[in-house]
Amino acid sequence: MGICRSLGGAFIVFLATEKQENFEGISVNRAFNGMHQRAAAILLLGALVGCTPTAPLPDMPDAGCTPTAADSAGTFRFAVFGDVRPQQPNDTANYPQAVVTGLFQQIAAQSPQLVVGTGDYMFASSTNSTAVDAQLAMLLAAEQGFAGPVYHALGNHECTGATASNCPNGNETANVRAFMSKLVPAGTTTPYYRVDVDTGMGKAKLVFIAANAWSPAQATWLEQQLADPTKYTFVVRHEDASVTDTAGAGASEQIVQKHPLTLELLGHWHRYEKLDERHVVSGNGGAPLSFGHYGFVLVDLLANGNLSVSEIDQATGAVGDTFTLCP
Description:
Number of domains: 2
CATH superfamily of the largest domain: Metallo-dependent phosphatases
Radius of gyration: 21 Å
Largest sheet: 6 strands, mixed
CATH architecture of the largest domain: 4-Layer Sandwich
Oligomer: single chain
């Protein structure tokens, strides 16, 4: 397979001398699944049709992969939770600490290497540092039930509480200042960051987008991180792209869709929901539920390189929805 760009700007994909397909726009990236590049074909056929060879497009997930269940590889497993705030602002007395404590006990029983949060760990006024600190103290106490690292994505309640809020500097409110000082990895200077893990079958990157701290700098950073090829790519963001009030939700998703994606993990909606094979909401960690029960998601690498994704009940440890996906 070869690719080149014509004078008109179209991408031309060559699978053989007798077959050509034209693709326009950013969706071109998803047209190349499973194809192998042949530089000679690019040069020869490019000369014939009068177009200029371009740099290779990013490798996408293997289109030939079949999502097949298998035993756990035992080398890479992580849990996902989100939305653990009280119902009313500054209502620290009703913070769902008992639910979150039970949640982390169930998480620990699954023996993951790490835990990921999808946002909204507090509900406090943006100037009420007393309530912010007290609620985060309850969260962190509950997280002590798990001995490994916990990585947190920023939610709208870590900015001002409004879905449309934006705190790109990481210091605009008491909420985001507490997030930066207590919930991001040591040495992290922005509300967005990346974590790499050796899965035993290749590198996995977990990219934490701060949709409520969106900026051109974050957009540039995100493009760079996702362009770095890894076997597995997990994106963590609070709001789904359909939440148009949040500046960074749709904008970041446009960047995500240009690159290989294993699984996108979301919150904001107080429920578990599989939106599609690559997008899952884990927002039933303790906040008032939209429906269903409190729980978390477990992602487990399988011996065949696929991954299992399961929703687990906080109260019983029972597995609810479960499915398998390719890298």
